[in-house]
Every structure is written in structure tokens, then in C-alpha cells.
Amino acid sequence: MTAVRFTEPIRDGIAMQFDRELDARGLNCPLPILRTKKSLNDMAPGQVIKVLATDPGSVRDFHAFSRQTGHELLASNAANGEFIFFLRKK
Question: Does domain 17-88 have CATH number 3.30.110.40?
């Protein structure tokens, strides 16, 4: 089976490729991080996950999660009360 990569325009003509998308909108801390961690466990090193969230605390949480776990936070963006994070699995 061939892996499929998706492309998401994030800003200023920059596009981010990702392998999996996780919709954590409507979930509050700690659920966006816990669901991200579970999804990352099922991914191969180097793959990228896109996470959608609405919890304002997720900005702080994803930065801390990246520092603590070593998964690289490639980009984050906020618009209209939604937050988008791209993480690369270590």
C-alpha cells in the first residue's frame, strides 16, 4: 500500500505536507494532547500529523509537548478561534 501525503496551505504561499490529520476541535485539555500522542504512536518516524484544535490552551500545550517528547513542532497557526499544529514524529 502506497502512503499518501496531503498538502495544506498555511500562510504566505507556504504549503505544509502531512500524513495524517487529527480533529481535536471541541476537546479541552488534556484531550488534544492525549489524542495526538495516541496518533503519533501509530505513525512512522518522520511522518507529519496535522492537528486541529479549538482549546486556546492547546497553543501552550503543544509547544510544551514538543519540547518534552522531541516531536518537532513544524508550524502552528491560529484563525477564527481554531488552532492548527503540524508535528513531525521523532
Answer: yes
